Description:
Elements: E1 2-7, H1 13-25, E2 28-31, E3 33-34, H2 51-58, E4 64-65, E5 74-82, H3 90-97, E6 105-111, H4 120-124, E7 133-138
Parallel strand pairs: 1-2, 1-5, 5-6, 6-7
Antiparallel strand pairs: 3-4
Amino acid sequence: METLVVYFSAEGTTAKVAKEFGEQAGAEVFEIIPEEIYTAADINWKNPLSRCNKEQLGGKDVPVKGKIEGFENYDTVYIGFPIWYGQAPRVVHTFCKGYDWTGKTVHLFATSGGSGIGKTAEKLCPSLSGAKSVDAKLVHSAGEVL
């Protein structure tokens, strides 16, 4: 079985960590890309009317581009993302709902400018139905992912 690193990055921080970790682990890497790319205004969490706030508070699905071929061949999946409102962005939830996680070990890693990891794993678990185990940690570099 194989290891996969999946990530969503709004400003490049998570992308850097995920790509470095994927290279170090010798794992395939897949970027979660929303159908409608986020602009700087969309991710301005200080604006209560910004897209990220509406999505997070509304619990909305965010359509995702692309699909992972051969997902059933991966037994361990690392999922990286920035912390938004103490959890994964809605686009990550939507991505996760599109796959069968039965028997997979899932390691969540999050980047943040100041928030803690909170209940990130607990909040994402409903979108990871069937996963054997799910854990989460806050990271600042690829070396901290494991």
